[in-house]
Design goal:
The complex is a heterodimer. By secondary structure, chain A is mostly beta strands. Chain A is built from no helices and twelve strands. In chain A, a hairpin with a 4-residue loop joins β8 and β9. In chain B, the strands form two sheets. In chain B, strands 2, 4, 5, 6, 9, 10 and 11 form a seven-stranded mixed beta sheet that branches. A four-stranded antiparallel beta sheet of chain B has the order 1-3-8-7, with no helix packed on it.
């Protein structure tokens, strides 16, 4: 069975600074990987996903993530954050050929002026 | 296109009472999910429907939770009787298909408080 670990529960960062949100997964088979964002009082929305091909994936709002199979990681990055990026970010994994998606516990990104 | 609709947005009940949540997925989406999101945690799948059949309900507490998706469109999740630990946000999501590669579209959620 697959699992997801988000290593940081909270990440405070100043506006215009770079940020990295870390995600590691565990699975015995090939996986699909996702990052979702949740703004206050809203549902989750997809930032980006890795299905196959290039290991560097670009998403919405200037975010990108890199799939590292040897380290079983899928870290999310943004070179310069804005106040509006303050939200909860969830890493998720599903096994290829499977039906279930497992979500991590989330990382709260807090961007300070 | 219209997003996933959920109602009510907020609900406060006393323990041992019953409650029901409603979800209308995006038109044409075959797969519908109900998740429970406890404060400070990620969403946990309760039940997944493919059209009007159940794909996975392994984490649904069946002694008190039930869900149905009649006609393969909208869905209702019920809790009866509610316990204090059921306080959470209940998220509904839908996707074109049930396989893991497909993006899930989430509704705004229903925040349940059990007192």
């Amino acid at each position: 069975a697959q699992s997801v670990t988000q290593l940081d529960s909270q990440v405070p960062v100043f506006e215009e600074a770079p940020v990295e949100l870390r995600c590691n997964y565990s699975s015995s088979v090939s996986v699909y990987l996702f990052w979702y964002v949740q703004y206050p009082n809203q549902g989750l929305q997809l930032l980006l996903k890795y299905l196959s091909g290039s290991t560097l994936v670009k998403g919405i709002n200037g975010f990108e993530a890199e799939f590292n199979k040897s380290q079983t990681s899928f870290h999310l990055r943004k070179p310069s954050v804005h106040i509006s990026d303050t939200a909860e970010y969830f890493c998720a994994v599903s096994e290829t050929g499977g039906f279930k998606t497992i979500f991590g516990a989330g990382t709260r990104l807090f961007v300070k002026a | 296109e219209a997003g996933v609709a959920q109602s009510p947005r907020y609900k406060i009940i006393e323990k041992r009472q019953s409650v029901a949540f409603w979800c209308n997925p995006i038109s044409g989406h075959a797969t519908l999910y109900w998740y429970q999101q406890i404060l400070g945690q990620g969403p946990k799948l309760l039940i997944q429907f493919q059209n009007n059949g159940v794909v996975d309900d392994s984490q649904l507490p069946k002694d008190r939770f039930s869900a149905e998706r009649l006609k393969g469109v909208d869905s209702t999740l019920k809790i009866q009787p509610a316990k204090l630990e059921d306080s959470a946000v209940y998220l509904c999501a839908s996707s074109l298909e049930g396989r893991g590669a497909y993006e899930q579209y989430f509704g705004p959620g229903t925040r349940l408080t059990v007192t």
